Amino acid sequence: xxxxxxxxxxxxxxxxxxxxxxxxxxxxxxxxxxxxxxxxxxxxxxxxxxxxxxxxxxxxxxxxxxxxxxxxxxxxxxxxxxxxxxxxxxxxxxxxxxxxxxxxxxxxxxxxxxxxxxxxxxxxxxxxxxxxxxxxxxxxxxxxxxxxxxxxxxxxxxxxxxxxxxxxxxxxxxxxxxxxxxxxxxxxxxxxxxxxxxxxxxxxxxxxxxxxxxxxxxxxxxxxxxxxxxxxxxxxxxxxxxxxxxxxxxxxxxxxxxxxxxxxxxxxxxxxxxxxxxxxxxxxxxxxxxxxxxxxxxxxxxxxxxxxxxxxxxxxxxxxxxxxxxxxxxxxxxxxxxxxxxxxxxxxxxxxxxxxxxxxxxxxxxxxxxxxxxxxxxxxxxxxxxxxxxxxxxxxxxxxxxxxxxxxxxxxxxxxxxxxxxxxxxxxxxxxxxxxxxxxxxxxxxxxxxxxxxxxxxxxxxxxxxxxxxxxxxxxxxxxxxxxxxxxxxxxxxxxxxxxxxxxxxxxxxxxxxxxxxxxxxxxxxxxxxxxxxxxxxxxxxxxxxxxxxxxxxxxxxxxxxxxxxxxxxxxxxxxxxxxxxxxxxxxxxxxxxxxxxxxxxxxxxxxxxxxxxxxxxxxxxxxxxxxxxxxxxxxxxxxxxxxxxxxxxxxxxxxxxxxxxxxxxxxxxxxxxxxxxxxxxxxxxxxxxxxxxxxxxxxxxxxxxxxxxxxxxxxxxxxxxxxxxxxxxxxxxxxxxxxxxxxxxxxxxxxxxxxxxxxxxxxxxxxxxxxxxxxxxxxxxxxxxxxxxxxxxxxxxxxxxxxxxxxxxxxxxxxxxxxxxxxxxxxxxxxxxxxxxxxxxxxxxxxxxxxxxxxxxxxxxxxxxxxxxxxxxxx
Length: 876
Fold this sequence. Notes:
Blueprint: H1 6-27, H2 29-46, H3 50-61, H4 65-89, H5 104-114, H6 119-128, E1 131-136, H7 145-161, H8 168-186, H9 198-232, E2 243-247, H10 261-289, H11 297-303, H12 309-332, H13 347-362, H14 366-383, E3 389-395, H15 396-409, H16 420-432, H17 446-459, E4 466-472, H18 477-489, E5 497-502, H19 505-519, H20 522-528, E6 531-537, H21 539-545, H22 547-568, E7 571-577, H23 589-594, E8 605-610, H24 611-618, H25 621-640, H26 648-669, H27 675-682, H28 685-688, H29 711-720, H30 731-740, H31 744-753, H32 755-770, H33 773-783, H34 789-810, H35 820-849, H36 855-872
Parallel strand pairs: 1-2, 1-8, 2-3, 3-4, 4-5, 5-6, 6-7, 7-8
Helix pairs in contact: 1-2, 1-4, 1-8, 2-3, 2-35, 3-35, 4-7, 4-35, 4-36, 5-9, 5-25, 7-8, 9-10, 9-14, 9-25, 10-12, 10-14, 10-17, 11-12, 11-13, 12-13, 13-14, 15-17, 15-18, 16-18, 19-22, 21-22, 22-26, 26-30, 30-34, 31-32, 32-34, 33-34, 33-35, 35-36
Family: Belongs to the PEPCase type 1 family.
Cofactor: Mg(2+)
Active site: 138, 543
């Protein structure tokens, strides 16, 4: 590879060397020699040496039980360190043009000038810019909070070592600190011993904000402001809040019995506590900094006769924040304390600090005002007093169950058996009525009581503490009206955005009809005040129909909803339920956003950031700043330089591709009698249940088959054996079908000119590059009944044919031709991932054959799962 990658390779080599020192210190020369032998054999095997490939298998199969865990840990840890080096390199001083694109916003502003976009239009787009990231605790994040802290510290060391003018003493100190951190990580549990609770997940989310986003948001806004001034000649208003952070952690109860009303209440209190704690840190620093004596009349009136007026105001705020922490601490512990002089709303922080900001500017000290004080003001606008806005998510049938119990108690029959028309008539009548619906003497079942308790918790919160109420598996207009009625019955004093989530292929296709029905209801139109949020499900639609059909259904649903709401005069926000993996809608953020239908980002972007992708995209301040930059540039570009609407012949061909791919996908997943037993044996799906990843059970219905699996373990399991089946199955077959029917030229045109289609092919290329047919075959031979082998062979043959079809459309000789660094990064990782794959297959074979539980083998297996996930990156 090009020597431009030397800086990255040097860091990878150094971290590997330090890890080797740690392994030697902990386990001696013999184990280190064994790890190095495996690494060298894997490197040679990757280069095509068949003898060394066979030797590698022999070495791994002959490892004694006591070496399985440390060897697995060695390769898993190396992949974690490689990820750190690569993540750091993307924001380092040595990030060369080949790897890192020019600054996305600067590049966009230059192109706006070239496309004659008026500065008025650009300013309006900036004013309307909204990026809301919704952090979710999906169970693919293996790293514990303690590990994440160490990763941040390792990055700091890499940054220091990059400086050219370091003295030998300083360099030695930084290298020693690095070795200490790597040793700390090695000697800590990589895997959690207990499954995290929803409260643990929420705390993980707060740690991401504290360690990264608290610095990244004001830094991004500072850089954004400078670019606006340079390119458009105007600055970002101090109270601008284009970034918002929301969360599902502690609010997402869909299929998670551990998220109760009490948990949600505690998460909301903890969130406020963490916000007050972080603001207190800022105020402490400002007390040290703002010792100036000159001020304007407003600040003088606020400070009284104090000689240092800014400090007087800040010390008063410090006292309020200290009181707030004491009060919330008591509430979290279930104790009562008087709520006097505590922080309850944003204005208590904003008003005095903004007054200080204006005073400093008026008194010729703007350079001081535009430092930490401005950063704090930006944080107040982004994070508020609640730190994050908590979404509530519940499955649609749980609300119907409540109403069924109520109507039965009132002698009205069973709500769930009524027609959709009768349900809507009943719901609208009750929503318009002044009298309460819930009977006084009614004793609801436990499940129903839980839904009602959740609605009461919502009603007790200030509006700004909450994001939206998401209804998973929403299918009808009554699903949305039911939630509004339950919130009304709970005494909710404000309008909460109730957001239907359309997940399956059928539901996506019906989305326009459902929203149209709602907008035709007079009560509903008056209540929503011309604002509607709709969530597009990427995970379950792909699991239901395959990636090609799901992608087209998502596109058409967005397109039709945009037109419907525009014609009705309703502001629409599309909420994207993307995961990290391709099978769950994952794609590089910039490309994914620009491939959406025209005008679909007019209302801004609301998107889930899930699992390990939170760490990769938002886990370090510089990386998070870069991610926000990419999001902002993509939204502005989509709104100012919108992609072309697809030609009718493209749409027609896309319908064919969708139908053929869906049939091909379902023919295997639903139609093959051997599929479920094959899936269960060739992947570690059953063993994933042992891994204490997320708080949620792996299945919605523990007794169900593949259809009851959550989309995440479904994808996760297939990424482990390197077949990555859900991320490609059906797509290439549909492309080949269209080529065979004379549509190659049209496919090539779509690839060149339609961002939606070219992004789909780019995603497929990346998936294909990460697959390994030889590893998949190895799993089959080790783990699968010989009678099922033909199915695996057919799927691998299908994979080979699909790769040829995609390369033909793209006129490429090999995969990822346009992204050589991405291809090289995957190739480099494979040297460390493939031994883990082989080791995992060996461990699965041993644990499945053994009649006794072996904690040591189980732990080694968990480590291989974690290591492969780290190597594959976008796993779930």
